[in-house]
Amino acid sequence: MKNLLLLLLTVSFFSGRAQSYLLPSRPSVVPQLAPFYHGVASGDPLSDRVIIWTRVTTNDAVASVDWQMATDTSFSNVVNSGNVNTDSSVDYTVKVDVLNLQPNTWYYYRFKADNAYSITGRTRTAPVGNIDSLRFGIIACSNFQAGYFNVYKDLATRNDLDAILHLGDYYYEYKAGGYGYTNDSSRLHPYDHDAFTLADYRLWHSQYKLDPDLRNCHQQYPFITIWDDHETANNSWYGGAENHNSSTEGDWFTRKDAGKKAYFEWMPIREEDLNEDTIIHRTEHWGDLLDLIMIDTRYEGRDSSLGSFIPANDPIVTDTNRTILGAGQRDWLKGQLSNSTAKWKIIGNQVMVAPLLANLGNGNQVLNGDQWDGYPADRKRVFDHIMQNNIHNVVFLTGDIHCSWGNDLPHPDSVYNKNTGAGSVATEFVCTSVTSPTLAGIGTIPLNVVQGFDPHVKYGEFTLRGYLLLDINKQRVQGDWIHMSTVATKNYTATDDAHWMNVDQERFLRQAPAALGPRPGNPGLMPFFVDVKDIAKDNMIVITCYPNPAESEVAIQYYLFQPAKVDLFITSMTGQIVRKESIQQTQSGLFNTKAYLDDLAAGTYLVSISAGGKTYSKQLVKLK
Q1: Taking the complete model, does pTM exceed 0.85, yes or no?
Q2: CATH label, 3-28+540-622, candidates 3.100.10.10, 2.60.40.3080, 3.30.470.20, 3.40.50.10860
Q3: 529-560, pLDDT tens digit by residue?
């Protein structure tokens, strides 16, 4: 813990527990966006429907929200509309599956509450029939503490995409000053402990979606997302995680369920089975050109993750009962591949599929057992199915590893030829991270050294942040790696550093003859909201105060537009003050605090927070 980054106060308000008031983070809370400070988002576009999302900041127990979908930015041709209610049970988020839309069409959407409109979002539906061209931005691993979201900014300002695929680690659960932190006190996570409760995960989502670059990116394009481990805890699997301590963080399944619930609340993802919140695998059809198959190699059926530098012939590695998919999802994936009539079968996946082995003098070592290398029997089953059924044009998309790779995928029973690609089953494009740092030491390893152990690696860049630009037509799938010069400041340049392709009917990568060029045809980008830097009339906005009802704690997130004295109270319904504390916040920004309720009797209380003449009060029910 870096003490210079923390302002530590132990106060009676917190029932005797030490609580850190962190120096504030500074995502953009814009008064003019009220009550939709988190912007809007859309996702999971099908040919006749798309998810639209927002969140309302309100003091009402139930908020009524109108929504509209139109074919024009002035909303003169509204094609669908409605009204929904939201409340604390879903953290005042709103998610609508808008139906009866036309295929291959761009739409505009907005929400209305408290007589105010949200910003207008732009989205689209998937095409049907004969399609010649598609283009996607591929991203993963966005750690708020590790730098600025220049990748989101770059994607939001280009106008040649159909959608954005996020392959997991949308946020990181680590505490303020923890993994990835770069000593920039404006990019701190909410608390000095890792997120592990539902209130925590909701706060992390809130902080990330207040970032203006992420907000702008969601405004322009639909997202198609899958989760990875950091949406709950590092190196997680069905029954546990490396970064879970049951003695301080409780039951694993309770924690996992909390992370998943917050994810479904805050992400524009369609819930495939409302009775089973572990299911996110799904296929989205983009005409005859593409079947986009999104899988879950993290929670649904994965056996325990392994460590690093494990002998490849270790019995636990070679155990044929170990699975990364689970039998049900594996059978489903095989069926999707066999039944697809699309030209390309592209699989969105969390962790690297290609072998990453090294012989350090004592036989081949699995460098990272959290990848498919830790589950080689499952990988072989999928590869066998592809080859035995003569399925061509299978491409894997991968995140997780925080660097850029282009891989052939050799079958374990074949003799792979790096010059011809013979022996490869399919190909893999691995995007680097939005901000998360490269693994220590890997940036110093020359690519030819990696290729000496793993000749199926065609391309590798191990130091830069960025995204993958994926372009698909009838002749080939091409991936261009776009890298940012920096994420340490907002002043960056983006360069197209490499371009590789999988040609139709081939099972290996070739270097593409040129970088991807312009792709016109999209309607104009939505204008970004420009914060005019007005100070809010009462200086403070309370973003959230939950859970309610509560058992042991209440999390409060608030934004100060200038330094102020902050007064915190809990009052009984008879007017007796049972908690009180005053804190002089010396900076502006986003603050997070917790009120611990352990020693309060069950009943109804009033939680109040005031600063600069603004007082926010909420009735709270204390359980037990």
Answers
A1: yes
A2: 2.60.40.3080
A3: 876 666 666 789 999 998 889 988 899 999 99
